[in-house]
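Q: Protein A?
A:
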Amino acid sequence: MNKKHWISALVMLCGIAACNPTPSPTVPGPTPVHILEPLMNAVLNIGPHTIKFDSTSQWGIDYFEVSVNGTVLASVAPLLTGSCGGGCGHAFYSEYVWTPPSTGHFTISVAAFGSAQWGTPGTVQVVVGEITIGQSSPLSPQPTSTPAVGVSGNVMVAATQDSNCREGGGEPYRILVVLKKGEPVEAVALSEDGFYLKVIPPKANVKCWVAIELLEVLEGDIQLLPREGFPLLPPPEPVNTPDPAGAP
């Protein structure tokens, strides 16, 4: 090959190399999101619920995207990060407070975005139901999951309206305290018939009973509470009736 042809071939090879550069290694994106709470097939009560989730990435996560039934609700930044060890890079954790719009079945999906790409979303299905009580079956709410971070783990309830809290279950018992609507109180016992909860009202040095149908469960499982009977009612006071006229 003469010099002229060699130079032409070299120029052609250089042109091919310029048009087809060596591909750079692909930067890995976030790992699939793990939804920590609520659990799959959890039964939730009407009210706010904290969705908790995490993912890992060697190059960082910019934000998480939360969807319910296919509708994007929010993009949230990671709240916590730390090393996950074993060469997996870093773990990223975040939360989103979701209030179900109604009762029914819902699919919660969370995806992580980082390194200019999406990771595989995590998905759970939940059922949202009203807190109600039947004539023959007491309320039996299911726990959504473990208590939120920083919560004591006790069973907590709140009245759905201002409600009388009595010495025992029902009107024959004396009213001790009026529970304010929405004020959280701790439940410590379930009645033997399953229709009343014994609670500790805040700022009151008493324990009293209130009907479950007047309450919503904020956290915990009331079916795990100890069963307890009501105190005995005092005997009715005798009624003095006047003797009929002319009686001996």
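Q: Protein B?
A:
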Amino acid sequence: MSDLASAIPELRRPFTPAAVKFKPQSVLGEGKGVLCVAYIDMRLVSERLNHICPNDWSDAYRPVGNGVMWCDLTVHGVTRSDVGEGTGKALVSDALKRAAVKFGVGVSLYAVPELKIWANQGRDLVSIWESGVKQNGKKKYDARIEDAGHAHLVAQYGAWLEQVGRQAFGEPLDHGDVDGAAGDHEVTATEPVHTEPHVPAGIIYEVIAEAKQAVAAGLDLAPLIEAVGAERKSTFPQTVRAMAPAQVEQFRSNLADLKAAA
């Protein structure tokens, strides 16, 4: 493609069912089921860019520290940036994939409905086991998607592709993947999972700075976190990064109201 305007529709095209991978995101209902997420590995992102604009893209990285890194992705002279989280190669992978979403690569996966597997479906789709106890005293669970479960998810994704994906994002672009291909296991075994459009890093840092000012002024943020239904993490920055976009927006609004009333 000779320019970004013509490249974007091609970059946005969905991936074939054979190219998409799946992993557990969270265990549902005290071990009764698993919420799964569809994802692609870094190799597919690079292949899509190489296929659509082979000589007109480049990537650069800016480490922030504490498992955070910026990726500046340039396509046809336009640079768009986003931040990744993780360690080692997974950090680079997450940063590139997030930046690539801003050019449309993999954006179709955010439109895939929730993929759930229930333990009582009568087939060996998923294994779920207790793995400890949370700070609030509730049991922690881990899960593994079995081969039959992967096939079940591939079928669900394929059905979505036929019913919705093709019309919304165009014909799938086949990169030659076959079901069960190894992929980039060095990355996919450890990289973070993002099932929703995430909050831009710049906004996260703004919220953290605003919250620090509020705490320094003696304000209690715990009720605000509870009010938006956010999960408490070990640190406040981790809590903010785990929030959905709507939760961050509501938290900032509530924080502004709290400051005004103080």
